[in-house]
Amino acid sequence: MSNRELVRSYAEPLKLGRRKGEWIDVRLPDSLVGAPIQKVMQQTPLAPKLANKLLQGKGIVLQGSNLRLRLFPAESIDFPSDWMELNVLYEDDFTLVVNKPSGIEVHPSEHGQRRTLAHGVASYYEMTNQNVRIRHIHRIDKETTGPVLYAKNEFAHYQYDKAMREKNIERIYLALAEGVLEKDKGTIDKPIGQDRHHSTKRRVSETGDPAVTHYEVVERFADHTLVRLRLETGRTHQIRVHLSAIGHPLAGDGMYGGKRGLIARQALHGERLIWRHPWTNEQLSARAPLPDDFAEALEKLRK
């Protein structure tokens, strides 16, 4: 079967049945019962490349009204496991969402690095008898807290990467900015590039990549503002750079001009993640509770 034959034409994904080990059942509507496998596969959200891979590996079985797909082949976990207490916000056969604490990185930034969130997820998969590779879909900064999305198979990884490119995964943040923002809501549209003098720092630059952040004020204090932000793009340090650029750096963010008296890290928390199920297209969401240090900073300001 050629890629052209497998061009997707589905309007609504076929309904998933039960998972059985490495396989999952897909229930066909009456209109597809007895149809050629090419036509059936056109109605699924499987990318042509993956559909062909399954066909060649005998990972597709069509019997009457039941389509069986080997979407969950056993994989070798590709990170050594480091046990850590994980706060799992959401999990199903395709997806894992973990609430990352401050002080650890999502993924190693140098060879041989250990005790990142990837190593913790590897330990979680090992302890729960899941033979799954580590596939993070996005990253957040080491000191930022909040949800991180993982795909648990190749199909979900493809779907989530595509959703990220098409800006269909929404990330909502809470940030404590220094100073008092006058407008109740606004948009910061400033391109971001790498700082010439600091390899890990970013800055607003006319030659940088497009970056758009939407914000709304949640609560004002004497000399700080709690804001909720939605990212339209996902540049490194985007919220930190954008708020600093308009004169309101994050509390605790020494790299971008914030002071560390109120909180010992940048006051940035991923409050909510919104995405769609890779097969059913159902909207899903996960909310991460405010971490203690952030909550304590707000209490100090309210007093």
From TrEMBL:
<dbReference type="InterPro" id="IPR006225">
    <property type="entry name" value="PsdUridine_synth_RluC/D"/>
</dbReference>
<dbReference type="InterPro" id="IPR006145">
    <property type="entry name" value="PsdUridine_synth_RsuA/RluA"/>
</dbReference>
<protein>
    <recommendedName>
        <fullName>Pseudouridine synthase</fullName>
        <ecNumber>5.4.99.-</ecNumber>
    </recommendedName>
</protein>
<dbReference type="GO" id="GO:0140098">
    <property type="term" value="F:catalytic activity, acting on RNA"/>
</dbReference>
<dbReference type="GO" id="GO:0003723">
    <property type="term" value="F:RNA binding"/>
</dbReference>
<dbReference type="Pfam" id="PF00849">
    <property type="entry name" value="PseudoU_synth_2"/>
</dbReference>
<feature type="compositionally biased region" description="Basic and acidic residues">
    <location>
        <begin position="188"/>
        <end position="197"/>
    </location>
</feature>
<comment type="function">
    <text>Responsible for synthesis of pseudouridine from uracil.</text>
</comment>
<feature type="active site">
    <location>
        <position position="141"/>
    </location>
</feature>
<dbReference type="GO" id="GO:0000455">
    <property type="term" value="P:enzyme-directed rRNA pseudouridine synthesis"/>
</dbReference>
<comment type="similarity">
    <text>Belongs to the pseudouridine synthase RluA family.</text>
</comment>
<dbReference type="InterPro" id="IPR020103">
    <property type="entry name" value="PsdUridine_synth_cat_dom_sf"/>
</dbReference>
<keyword id="KW-0413">Isomerase</keyword>
<feature type="region of interest" description="Disordered">
    <location>
        <begin position="188"/>
        <end position="207"/>
    </location>
</feature>
<feature type="domain" description="Pseudouridine synthase RsuA/RluA-like">
    <location>
        <begin position="96"/>
        <end position="245"/>
    </location>
</feature>
<dbReference type="InterPro" id="IPR050188">
    <property type="entry name" value="RluA_PseudoU_synthase"/>
</dbReference>
<dbReference type="GO" id="GO:0009982">
    <property type="term" value="F:pseudouridine synthase activity"/>
</dbReference>
